[in-house]
Every structure is written in C-alpha cells, then in structure tokens.
Amino acid sequence: MKNQLDPFTPSLCPVRSILAKIGDKWSILIVHDLRKGRQRFSEIRRALPDISQRMLTQTLRKLEREGLVLRIVTPCVPPRVDYELTALGQSLLGPLDQLSGWAATHKRQIEKSRERFDARP
To answer: How deeply is 31 buried, as exposed, middle or buried, from its count of CB atoms within 10 A (0-12, 13-18, 19+)?
Structure first.
C-alpha cells in the first residue's frame, strides 16, 4: 500500500474548515431564509424568532466574511441595512435542498432509531 495522505486529514480536508464556518444551525437557517431575496435584519429576525439579536448579528457577519451574504447599507436616517445572498450563497441552496430532502425522507427512520437508543438500559 502506498503511503498516501488521507484527504480527510484535518489539515488537508476542505470540508472540515468550511463546515466549521457555515455548518451550524443558524447559518443554514439564515441562508435558507435569504433565498426569498433581499431582507432587512428585522425581517430575518421575525422569520427566526428563536434566534437572539446578538447571535443573528454574529452569524450574519460570519456569513458575510465567508462570502455567502452581502450587507447593503443605504445611506439615510436611520441607515437602512439589507442582506442578500451572494452568487456563492445562492450556490449553497442546491446542496441545502438535497440535505433537507434527505432529512425529510429519513426523518421517521431517524426518530425510530432515537427511540430504540433511548429505550436501552
């Protein structure tokens, strides 16, 4: 057997570093919500009522840093701030739809597995 580097080695695996940044619950839910188009902070917050203002701010900044979300400031009093998906963010919608479809297809199977696991002594 050749001495090849495993592509899933932490230092080589691009999936690990990306998922660490965008794989959390809030990032995925925000990207999914922004598929509707440009929205103000308050609109996103209403769509995700269980997220705190602080967490929403942090997650939007992180998504902006990763190039998935564009922050648009319109100079007025008070300044208007909108968010929308970039082309890169739009490209994430397909994989998210696939993951969502997989989850919907296997939801009951996973629930049964949880029930069996939780019933174990």
So the answer is: buried
Low-confidence ranges of the chain (pLDDT < 50): 1-3
Residues 6+ apart with CB under 8 A from 73: 79, 80, 81
Mind listing the pLDDT tens digit for each residue in 23-39? 889 999 999 999 999 99
Q: Which residues pair with 80 in a beta bridge?
A: 74
Q: Could you tell me which residues come within 8 angstroms of residue 53 by beta carbon, excluding any fewer than 6 positions away? A: 45
3-state SS assignment for residue 91: helix
Q: Report how far residue 88's alpha carbon sits from residue 75's, in angstroms, rounded to the nearest whole number.
A: 26
Count the neighbouring beta carbons within 10 Å of the beta carbon of residue 10.
8
Is residue 34 within 8 A of residue 22, CB to CB? The reply is no
Give the E-state strand segments of the chain in sequence order. 39-40, 69-74, 80-85
